Structure formats: C-alpha cells, structure tokens
Amino acid sequence: EAALGVARPLSGRHAIVTSGPTHEPIDPVRYIANRSSGKQGHAIAAALAALGARVTLVSGPVGIADPAGVQTVHVETAAQMLAAVEAALPADVAVCAAAVGDWRVAAAAGQKMKKDGGAPPALQLAENPDILARLSAPGPLRPRLVVGFAAETEHLAEYAAAKRARKGCDWIVANNVGGTGIMGGEENEVLLLSDEGAQAWPKLSKREVAGLLADKIGKFFA
Ligand code: CTP
Ligand code: CA
Which tens digit of pLDDT belongs to each residue from 34-43? Predict the structure, then answer.
C-alpha cells in the first residue's frame, strides 16, 4: 500500500531493535558501561517504522529521545534487555544494534562499596547472555530475518564473518569502531555481510545507514 506516495513494504510486520549500551551495576551507585550512544539503533527503529513496521525498540540507557511511532522499552542491564526482547517475541525481523555489555559483575554489592584503607577491590566478572545468538538459534520463535552488528577495531571483514557464523544470524553490519568518531559519532562506515557476500557502504550518516538497511529489509520481505 502507499500513503502519501510512500511505499510501506513492512506494514503488518513486527520488528524488534536493540539499541544503546547496557549498564552493569557494581554497587547501587556505580556501573560498567560503554561508549554506545544509541544513535544507530534508534535510527534503524525509526526507519523500519517509516516503512510501515510495528517496532519494539529495547533500549539501554541513552541520552536521546524515544523515536516517534515506535514502542520503546527502557532497560539497564543485559539480562533485562534479553528479558524484554523475549517478551516482545514473536517478530518477523530482529536487529541487534545494542552494545550489550559482555560481562556483568558476578555479585554486585548491595550497598555502596567503601574505601577501607586496604587494597582496591577486585571485580569478579561473569559473562552476559548473548541476545543475538539466542534470537538466531533455530526454533519456532526465531524471527525470519536476524541482523547483528559487529563492532571491531581490526580485521573487520574477517572478524565479522566469523561472528556471523558463530552467532547464526542472517546478516551482519560490520563497523570499525577503532579510532574516534564512530562510537557516539554521527557517521558510520559499514560492511554488510550476508549470503550474497560482503557489500561495502560508503561513509554515511547513521540516519542514512538506517535508511539503507531498512530498505534492504523491506525488499527481503517484499
Ligand atoms: N550482542 C548481543 N548480546 C551480547 C553481546 C553482543 O546481542 N551479550 C550482539 C550485539 O548487539 C551485536 C553482536 O552481538 O549485534 C555483536 O556484538 P559484538 O560486541 O561485536 O560481538 P561479541 O560477540 O560480543 O564479541 P566481542 O565483543 O568479543 O568481539
Ligand atoms: Ca561484545
């Protein structure tokens, strides 16, 4: 269907998008986080909605507004993000753009940790669940199309291809987060890996990357 002459190839489809960082508590006042701004994931959620999808955006703590026309669920930790994603299933497509904390503090302190004049505390970490790998695992609730991101600082194509195979997702959007300007920045230069091979996109605004990705997803479901 067309509204105002705009194609809506994703109408009737449900999309889940993860975005932003996670905060993994150390104690009630401290946490482990990362430099993700949520700009890319939020732009993807908005672009999918613009193509007619019903979008559930599961967002870690970010400093940007909820996109219009999207149902946004706010979470802090990776465990909460996984629970919110599972609660939002089923979906036709999932895009995991969040920079999920790889580790949490194994036993976060219940009270603010205090200096006691001795050695600094050592943080014992535990690995977080992999939301993208869970979504990609075969089963009745697997979305037909699962798209991951790969944040790398070196060997981009090689590491991203290995990540795609390891996680079992359909497409990987690989970006080089080395140097400055990408994480938290306005632009992104990505490599899209799929069964069709690798496609290098030029350096674009995050909004343009989101638009191209949404178009490609729209064509997939056409
Ligand atoms: N991801 C996820 N849950 C995690 C870790 C990552 O859903 N616990 C997703 C990210 O949203 C992204 C993809 O997996 O779509 C790749 O994230 P990345 O950090 O690049 O890869 P990792 O598998 O965590 O490996 P590493 O950080 O060691 O490179
Ligand atoms: Ca990681």
Answer: 999 999 999 9
pTM of the model: 0.95
Beta-bridged to residue 99, according to DSSP, are 21
d(CA 122, CA 105): 10
Closest-CA residue to 38 (of 96, 94, 103, 102) = 96
Sorted by sequence, the CB contacts under 8 Å of residue 158 that are 6+ apart come out as: none
Which atom of ligand 1 is closest in space to residue 132's alpha carbon? 7
Percent of the chain that is helix, strand, coil (3-state, to 5): 25, 30, 45
Around Cβ 114, how many Cβ atoms within 10 Å? 9
* Residue 141 identity (one-letter amino acid): L
Query: What positions carry a catalytic annotation?
Result: 34
Does 132 belong to an annotated binding site? Answer: yes
Which ipTM score applies to this complex? 0.99
- Of 126, 137, 48, which is closest to residue 86 (Cα–Cα)? 137
